[in-house]
Amino acid sequence: MSTTAWRVIHPSGVASTRWANGLGTTRELASGGDGAWRLSLADIGAEAEFSSLPGIDRLLIALSGGVVLRVAGVESEFGPGDYVEFPGEASVSGWALASEASVINLMVARDAVRYEFCMEGSAREIALPALSDEFVVLLGDGQTAAGERLERGTVLLPGAASPDAASVVFTEGIPICRVRLSASAGSVQR
Fold first, then answer.
1. What average pLDDT does range 72-91 have in this prediction?
2. Bridge pairing between strands 142-143 and 149-150
């Protein structure tokens, strides 16, 4: 099986940009054309305040390394695969437990989009997104049975239809996060 019928976003192929507040770097992996949502991979090092993003709801998933987040004064430690949700206007700072860590960051405009997500661990076969409002994020490095290397943070988005590419088979189990977006006039619900 191959991922050629699907859009595959490799984080290493995306240029880094500065955070809105200039205190860190991020790579935009995918976004809604209307600006209602954005998925990025952020690098975290020394303690830094997160950008204030009023009206945005955020899902942050630790991808590599350990991270400490202080959200509205409460500190929590996260390791790979752990996640936290918080409003963009909250006072948030974070730092890596070692020299560096990376996190997946989903940001949605709460008055326009809601999201649902599901963490799936150690899957050897991943059903590819079938809907235009769905995507999969790889939370570990993997190699497909066809020999294609996919790094952690890779995003699989629906592309051209292909009857023989309904899934990706990996040589070993890999954890993923499956996300589905939908229109919403209210707050984010899970």
1. 94
2. antiparallel
H or E, element range at 75: strand 74-78
Residue entry with tokens 């999201």: 115
* pTM, two decimal places: 0.87
Q: Which of 83, 85, 113, 86 is nearest to 187 (CA)?
A: 113
Share of the chain above pLDDT 70, in %: 90
Element (H, E) at 142: strand 142-143
Cβ-Cβ contacts under 8 Å for 88 (sequence gap 6 or more) = 52, 53, 54, 55, 56, 57, 58, 107
b or e along 88-110 (b: 16 or more beta carbons within 10 Å of the residue's beta carbon)? beeebebebeeeebbbbbbbbbb
Residue 127 has pLDDT above 90, yes or no: no
3-state class (DSSP) for residue 11: helix
Q: Which tokens belong to 159?
A: 């592309």
> Do residues 69 and 78 lie in contact, with contact meaning Cβ atoms separated by under 8 Å?
yes
Residue pointed to by tokens 């988005």? 157
